[in-house]
Design goal:
Layout lengths: L1 E6 L8 H8 L3 E6 L14 E4 L15 H13 L4 E4 L1 H9 L4 E16 L24 E12 L6 E5 L7 E4 L3 E4 L7 H11 L12 H5 L3 H18 L9
Parallel strand pairs: 1-2, 1-3, 3-4, 4-9
Antiparallel strand pairs: 5-6, 5-7, 7-8, 8-9
């Protein structure tokens, strides 16, 4: 099995995802757009992970590789490939599938709770249709790590999975094998420190922007809980699919 990741800046890597992939037996390859934007044949991979970054999905004039990246993400989704998007990655999925990505009401940086949306919620744009089967179920409430200023509208047919007080669309699912997360469940103490080192100028006072000391004060249990939840998400996306009618 082969997992391929799309990385946008050197300091936002796989985090805890890498350990899960290796334990599950995946060979890991990646496209690092800051180094070489070459993309593989989607048919040659078994799982696609789209990571975060400080840029916007709307920066196509400055970052020309965003255009083929979105085409690649859409092709992977339409082929039925399991796809996970994290923060910018979730925004790229939304944009690739025709939804709007735009500035949020306020930035969310630090440890804040997200809340599960009932699994029976209606898919966006799917009037009178039942929700997608087998929607992933988040905990009723869990503190997670955020670092974002933009948000997304939900793509057509998406199931809304999680929200926060500051940002309505925190997680969504498309079909059985695509999940977008606005927040970072893969964060480790090392990756949180790397983000702070490169982006601490964004820590401007606000109701949902924590200071550096508060962010770094998170204990091991907090990281373990989000990493365990990321493992659950990855397990859900890569589970064997039953044939229709079984």
């Amino acid at each position: 099995m082969r997992a391929h990741f799309l990385q946008h800046v050197p300091f936002e890597g796989l985090g805890s995802i890498e350990q899960w992939l290796r334990a599950a037996g995946y060979a890991i390859t990646g496209t690092r757009f800051f180094d070489d934007p070459a993309l593989p044949d989607p048919a040659s991979i078994d799982l696609l992970v789209v990571m975060g970054g400080p840029m916007s999905v709307n920066d196509e004039a400055a970052l020309a590789w965003l255009v083929p990246e979105k085409r690649f993400v859409r092709a992977a989704i339409e082929s039925g490939l399991p796809v996970l998007g994290v923060c910018l990655g979730a925004q790229l999925i939304a944009s690739a599938m025709g939804a709007r990505v735009h500035p949020g009401r306020q930035k969310e940086i630090g440890w804040f709770p997200v809340h599960a949306v009932p699994a029976a919620a209606q898919p966006v744009g799917a009037a009178a249709k039942p929700p997608a089967p087998d929607a992933f179920v988040f905990p009723a409430s869990i503190d997670v790590f955020h670092w974002h200023g933009e948000t997304f509208d939900l793509p057509e047919g998406a199931v809304h999975l999680a929200r926060s007080d500051a940002c309505e669309n925190q997680a969504f699912q498309l079909g059985r094998s695509v999940i977008g997360l606005q927040f970072h469940l893969e964060t480790t103490p090392q990756s949180a420190l790397a983000m702070l080192e490169h982006c601490r100028d964004e820590l401007q006072p606000g109701p949902t922007v924590q200071d550096e000391a508060t962010i770094l004060a998170a204990d091991a249990g907090r990281y373990r809980r989000i990493n365990d939840l990321m493992a659950d998400v990855l397990g859900f996306l890569t589970r064997p699919q039953l044939a229709p009618g079984r």
